[in-house]
Specification:
The protein has 846 residues and is an alpha+beta fold. The chain has twelve helices and 57 strands. Strands 1, 2, 3, 4, 5, 6, 7, 13, 14, 18, 19, 20 and 21 form a 13-stranded mixed sheet that branches. A hairpin with a 2-residue loop joins strand 35 and strand 36.
């Protein structure tokens, strides 16, 4: 169930203020490893009672059940709101870490310092299961999300590593998300809904491990069991410089025995195959369940529905006879149907973070090598000083000499110490002194070995390291044996550094290269300023630039934004001015005196301004009205008295006058597609035609119609009761009235007078009732009152029905009289016969 909560809710077990499941369309939850986590959906505006900025939407997800997402962007289009919500974790974007320095701490302690370094308290709990890494980081004026997940070199994931698990207010950095599942799927070429990007150039099937000081294994190589799956053996040298062999008989506790070193070298090399899978192609897969459901192969892919982000599985390529270990690195999920829409599998990272992580690994390796060199130098110096027996010390009033002979004229190796400093020469008393410390603070040395060197300025021709040389005069940097060229970069790195035109080393890659290779480094020269982040302001607000665009903030609210894709907005409410990357602008309100879109076709909204030429198309405030004008003779006029329309300089219609209706000049209202159906109005008459036949005509003389039909369907009626009957059909007790009786009808017909007359202004004679003389109860049925012209009228339909009722009663009475007449005639016939019989009897008696 997808529910909406108020912006300040923190208990999502409650019901919330609105359920969205049946209202929204196209709901998608998207998540990437160490990347974006968001919910998107669309909803009709009429159903969006609680869709407000910063309210919280809680929706099902495939991994951690219901998750909270905060409404962060609402776009309105065609009666719909298109809503983007970010996981509640991103609330930390609005917090700030002013300045913390993490020195030689484990991951858990580092996260605790990040947590406590936030300016504002927050409801989040931060955990980690990373326990094998100690590192340092200085974080100044970062928000907590950037401090933990940013691409900067000093972010948590770039110093301590890990993958983030976001579970509402619980944040956990795990060594690795997911599990090693037993799921296997088969890849088939040209399968709809199934995309694959497979790279065979990075495969290594045979490793030559190399330890410190160039130590190699006796057997030289470690070979992958998959070596025969490819047409040739792919060999690579991998250096493990932290594996060192200590000298035999040395009391030094650091380093390993030769056998221990060999064992560790073999273990690490095998791990490259078993854990890092460097003997498999680099691959990335995108699986669309919507497309795949239409195919018969879907049953083989359906198993993907049971894995979660970070889980590993095997992808079998039957044609190539290769199996590739891949992880789910991102997904799109429907929270209503609770099914995956799309999943992305891969054994390569899609972001530049992988490169910065590799640089971090190299940096750690360099740190280790440098410290190793320092330690070796310390050991050598200690040994030389301990074994420095012999020699001659000569103390003079102005100097001290330490020499390899007792005569300063014959000595070659000499230390001299006087009031100007200390120096060493290996060519005799006259020098030169290749090592010296003088009283002015200078140190002269052919070689300096240092653990840490702090300096304001280092002036040098070259900085030379074991695997890195930097020529400060020419600006050439060399890694290993070669300078940095495209041939010395891995294919993966070259792909990351390609320009927008797809070529290596174009200007299009300059800004991305500087940002990601130099972290927070800002470059300023006479032509440009290049920086990943620029901020002007204070904690209450300001302007912020980064690679995504320009932000203007006031307090915790973004009041303006211009994206690097060209979209953006101004204002801090849902009615702000916004535009998309295609240049479409949403402009809720305009308050202005005048808008000039052209030289002649102007929009004029201030009274008194002329709209250019008189026939110019315009909206203007001429006179007491606003006009929408096509020309001086064709326009619409809107004023406080109504709307008028003009054509050819004459008014053709108006909504004005005491009746607040539509007034038209002589003319016709008709069907746009056919003149067979129309209404015509002129000063003499109104008439209507339907399908070519005149159906009504209204003149001063009256209304003429081919037919008149009034609604009399039983479905439309209630409280039905026959005259002189008590039975009521479809009774409604809320409506009360007295039913008419037969006597009421006869009384009305008998006693209501009829008049000859004519209507005022007409000479035609007429004959009918006078409404004022009709009495109740008939009056309540047939007399109506027109409130507009304050006159009475008679309901002809009810009047005709009363006449009908009177005729019915008269017919009934006539039938009763006819029956009586027939009975009397029968009685008369009988009497006649009896009279005839009596007459006959009287005649006989005589």
């Amino acid at each position: 169930m997808i529910r909406v909560y108020r912006s300040n809710e923190i208990n999502f077990k409650r019901n919330g203020v609105q359920v969205l499941d049946k209202l929204i369309s196209n709901p998608v939850v998207s998540e990437e490893i160490n990347g974006i986590y968001q919910l998107e959906f669309s909803i009709p505006i009429k159903d969006s009672d609680y869709i407000e900025m910063e309210n919280i939407v809680v929706a099902p997800t495939p991994t951690n059940d219901d998750q909270a997402f905060r409404i962060s962007h609402i776009r309105k289009s065609n009666g719909m709101y298109h809503v983007t919500c970010y996981h509640i974790f991103y609330d930390l974007n609005h917090n700030l870490i002013e300045d913390i320095n993490i020195v030689n701490l484990g991951a858990s302690a580092a996260l605790e310092k990040i947590d406590k370094g936030c300016v504002n308290t927050h409801p989040f709990k931060i955990y980690t299961d990373i326990s094998n890494k100690v590192a340092s980081s200085r974080i100044v004026r970062y928000n907590p999300v950037r401090a933990m997940l940013g691409s900067d070199d000093n972010s948590f994931i770039n110093r301590w590593g890990g993958e983030i698990e976001r579970n509402n207010f619980n944040i956990t950095f795990r060594k690795r998300l997911g599990i090693d599942s037993s799921v296997q799927i088969r890849y088939k070429k040209n399968l709809i809904g199934y995309e694959a990007d497979i790279d065979y150039t990075q495969i290594t099937t045979k490793i030559m491990p190399k330890a410190a000081d160039g130590v190699l294994l006796p057997e030289r190589y470690i070979t992958s069991p998959k070596v025969n799956q490819y047409h040739n053996t792919k060999i690579k040298v991998i250096e493990y410089s932290d594996i060192k062999i200590r000298d035999v008989g040395s009391s030094d506790t650091e380093g390993m025995t030769k056998e221990e070193a060999y064992t560790e070298m073999r273990r690490r090399a095998w791990a490259e195959f078993s854990e890092n899978h460097i003997d498999e192609p680099r691959a990335n897969y995108k699986v669309s369940f919507i497309d795949l459901e239409k195919t018969k192969e879907y049953k083989h892919i359906k198993k993907l529905e049971n894995i979660n982000i970070g889980d590993t599985l095997k992808v079998i390529h039957p044609e190539e006879k290769v199996s590739i270990t891949a992880r789910m690195i991102s997904y799109k999920y429907d929270p209503v149907s609770m099914k995956y829409i799309e999943v992305e599998l891969g054994n390569i990272s899609e972001s530049f973070t992988s490169i910065t992580s590799e640089l971090r690994r190299i940096n750690d390796k360099i740190d280790t090598d440098v410290m190793s060199a320092v330690d070796d130098s310390k050991k050598l110096a200690t040994k030389m000083l301990k074994e420095g027996f012999g020699g001659h010390v000569k103390i003079m009033p102005d100097r001290i000499l330490i020499m390899d002979t007792d005569n300063e004229n014959t000595a070659k190796k000499i230390w001299m110490w006087n009031k100007n400093g200390l120096g060493f020469s290996n060519t005799g008393i006259n020098g030169p002194y290749g090592l010296a410390m003088t009283k002015d603070g200078s140190i002269v040395a052919d070689y300096i070995t240092s653990g840490k060197l702090n300096a304001n300025v280092i002036r040098a021709g070259q900085i030379v390291g074991k695997n890195f040389n930097l020529d400060l005069d020419s600006g050439l940097a060399k890694f290993g044996e070669n300078s940095i060229t495209k041939d010395s970069l891995s294919q993966e790195l070259k792909n990351e550094l390609k320009g927008k035109d797809g070529r290596d080393g174009t200007d299009a890659t300059l800004y991305e290269w500087l940002r990601d290779w130099n972290g927070t480094y800002t470059q300023v020269d006479g032509r440009k300023v290049i920086s990943p982040n620029i901020f002007a302001g204070n904690r209450d607000g300001g302007v912020f630039f980064n690679e995504n665009g320009l932000y203007v903030k006031r307090g915790g609210t973004t009041t303006a934004w211009i994206s690097n894709n060209g979209s953006g907005f101004f204002g801090n409410s849902t009615d702000n001015i916004s535009w998309d990357s295609n240049g479409n602008i949403r402009l809720p309100k305009i308050t202005t005196d005048a808008i000039y879109p052209g030289n002649s076709e102007r929009i004029i909204l201030e009274r008194g301004l002329a709209p250019g030429a008189n026939d110019a198309k315009s909206i203007d405030a001429t006179g007491n009205a606003i006009r929408l004008k096509y020309s001086a003779y064709a326009y619409l006029s809107v004023s406080n008295t109504g709307i008028s329309g003009y054509r050819a300089g004459e008014r053709k219609f108006a909504t004005a006058g005491q009746y607040d209706g539509i007034s038209v000049a002589s003319g016709t209202v008709m069907n746009l597609d056919s003149s067979d159906t129309l209404m015509s109005v002129n000063s003499e008459a109104f008439w209507a035609r339907a399908s070519g036949a005149q159906v009504i005509l209204a003149t001063r003389e009256g209304v003429y119609s081919t037919t008149a039909q009034l609604s009399s369907d039983a479905k439309l009626k209630e409280n039905l009761c026959k005259i002189n009957d008590d039975k009521i059909i479809r009774k409604n007790d809320d409506v009360k009235f007295d039913n008419l009786t037969g006597e009421d009808v006869f009384d009305f017909l008998k006693n209501t007078s009829l008049f000859n007359y004519n209507f005022k202004g007409q000479n035609k004679p007429r004959f009918s009732l006078v409404a004022q003389l009709i009495k109740d109860p008939i009056r309540s049925v047939i007399v109506g009152y027109n409130k507009i012209n304050k006159t009475y009228a008679i309901d002809v339909y009810n009047y005709a029905s009363i006449l009908h009722a009177g005729i019915q009663e008269e017919i009934k009475k006539r039938e009763m009289l006819e029956a009586k007449v027939n009975s009397l005639e029968s009685d008369i016939d009988i009497l006649r016969k009896e009279i005839e019989t009596l007459k006959s009897m009287l005649s006989t008696s005589k």
